[in-house]
Task: inverse folding
């Protein structure tokens, strides 16, 4: 419900408070160059490049196999606490990386939405966020129905 509430709120701001929506949009577009400069400086940094490599390694060799159930057959039962600790300690890395990536791309996305929706970018962003929330809710319902 979190994404749906945010999306509907953004759409409501676009409809009811157009000057506020315009200010939010201009602020995001103004900050776009700053975010892009930060992103480029981070990508040039060798330490951050190493962190990206570690992130990709963790996701593809720890998270995905764990979620697919491969560790259930390999790791002995007495290592369950260690396994769960390692897996849950990698989630903040994944969330931080995803949020950073979204922030970097937000300005370009707002520009595209502004062209797509003919000047109503914040309302269109609200619709997109609501749609993502509904996709998550649909996935949950399907999972519940399948595993009954």
Result:
């Amino acid at each position: 419900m979190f994404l749906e509430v945010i999306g509907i709120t953004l759409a409501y701001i676009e409809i009811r408070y157009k000057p506020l929506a315009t200010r939010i949009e201009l602020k995001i577009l103004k900050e776009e160059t700053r975010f892009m400069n930060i992103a480029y400086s981070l990508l040039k940094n060798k330490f951050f490049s190493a962190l990206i490599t570690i992130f990709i390694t963790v996701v593809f060799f720890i998270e995905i196999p764990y979620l697919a159930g491969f560790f259930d057959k390999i790791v002995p039962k007495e290592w369950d606490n260690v396994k769960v600790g390692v897996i849950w300690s990698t989630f903040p890395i994944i969330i931080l990386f995803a949020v950073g990536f979204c922030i970097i791309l937000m300005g370009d996305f707002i520009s595209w939405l502004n062209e797509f929706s003919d000047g109503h970018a914040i309302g269109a962003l609200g619709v997109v966020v609501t749609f993502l929330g509904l996709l998550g809710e649909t996935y949950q319902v399907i999972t519940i129905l399948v595993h009954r």
